[in-house]
Design a protein that fits this description.
minor pseudopilin epsh fold; 2 helices; 5-stranded antiparallel beta sheet
Length: about 160
């Protein structure tokens, strides 16, 4: 009897498993460029800011956003005392977020004025908010998140 040449099913499966492991390791090792990470974080923050503005209107409450160093946080203004309290009842979109190492974010403007980096930018229940800006920086990227009175957030790359 003549024997045919070829691979057994086991040999093919072993090769596929080795390739799959190699691709998985490469995908985990490749996290993209610094600019890509900064853009991803800026989009994430922009979505959270828009969500906070919509939530302030929907629940008739004053919310706020602040950013300093490598993190951002959302706040709720207590209607009785007028003090800002950390927002603790939203553990998804509006949860405090720490940026990857070497990235920084700060508030830079509110109502056309420069502000301190840790200023709380308010979102009013009426939905009519002042324009504001936050700046996200990393080693290779600088992005500005600009909010308009209609609560839209634009991500701008300054020149």
């Amino acid at each position: 009897m003549r024997r045919r040449g070829g691979f057994t099913l086991i040999e093919v499966l072993v090769v596929l498993a080795i390739i799959a492991i190699g691709v998985s390791v490469a995908a985990v090792a490749y996290d993209g460029s610094d600019r890509d990470r900064a853009t991803r974080e800026a989009r994430r923050f922009a979505g959270a800011l828009e969500h906070a503005a919509a939530r302030a209107q929907a629940r008739a409450e004053t919310l706020g956003a602040s950013a300093s160093e490598g993190a951002w946080r959302f706040w709720r203004r207590d209607p009785e005392s007028g003090r800002w309290q950390p927002l603790a009842d939203d553990d998804t979109i509006l949860a405090a977020h720490t940026l990857p190492a070497a990235m920084r974010v700060a508030s830079t403007g509110y109502s056309g004025q420069e502000v301190a980096a840790d200023t709380i930018v308010p979102f009013r229940p009426t939905g009519r908010n002042e324009p504001f800006t936050f700046e996200l920086t990393s080693k290779d990227a600088r992005l500005v998140l600009a909010g308009d009175p209609l609560n839209r957030i634009a991500i701008v790359v300054p020149e």
